[in-house]
Design brief:
mainly beta; 192 residues; four-stranded antiparallel beta sheet; elongated; 1 helix
Length: 192
């Protein structure tokens, strides 16, 4: 598995009196770092979309890797999730179930996942007129857990057949930034 290494460890002891060297059996340990895995699916991948037709993107974010630490401040990742929908798609909502952080200093999490739905209609821009992400969430993901998001959007008005590509970016402290696979669709003109 990616991001893992095998360590071969053994102990050597030398007798002070006789100078005899004793060596233990080799112990093989698999160790690795935490990492974030991100995948995206859509039942409509590759299909033509008509004006106003909805599309759902299912995103899976997994906190993977191997660790023997019980320290939740080390093993829980807070994934910053962003999605800049193509301008030809109009955001509707994003729904996900995740644990809530009860105490940031200890990373104590709620006992159950809480489902949330966020309205992502409209397009926001910063003070320079640059488009802000439609989806911009911070989601805690405990070690070896997976969070699923459903991003809903609909096809906007276009004058000609238009290819659109969408992917989601996830990043967290102590791990590298990952991008999901790209979902490609074509939006058809209103009267096509």
């Amino acid at each position: 598995i990616e991001h893992q290494k095998e360590l071969n460890a053994y102990a050597t002891i030398t007798s002070d009196k006789t100078g005899t060297v004793y060596r233990t059996n080799e112990n093989r340990i698999i160790v690795g770092e935490l990492y974030l895995d991100a995948k995206m699916y859509s039942a409509k991948e590759g299909e033509d979309l008509r004006y106003g037709e909805e599309i759902e993107y299912e995103v899976e974010l997994s906190n993977m890797g191997m660790t023997n630490s019980d320290d939740k401040t080390v093993t829980t990742l807070i994934a910053k999730v962003t999605d800049y929908l193509p301008k030809e798609l109009e955001g509707i909502s994003v729904t996900y179930s995740a644990y809530e952080i009860l105490d940031y200093s200890t990373m104590e999490l709620s006992e159950e996942k809480v489902e949330k739905t966020v309205d992502i209609t409209g397009t926001a821009t910063d003070e320079n007129g640059e488009k802000l992400p439609n989806v911009n969430l911070n989601i805690p993901i405990p070690h070896l857990d997976t969070v699923k998001l459903i991003i809903k959007a609909k096809a906007g008005f276009v004058y000609e057949k238009t290819r659109v590509e969408n992917s989601v970016i996830a990043e967290a402290e102590r791990v590298y930034t990952v991008e999901t696979n790209v979902i490609v669709n074509t939006i058809l003109p209103y009267d096509y």
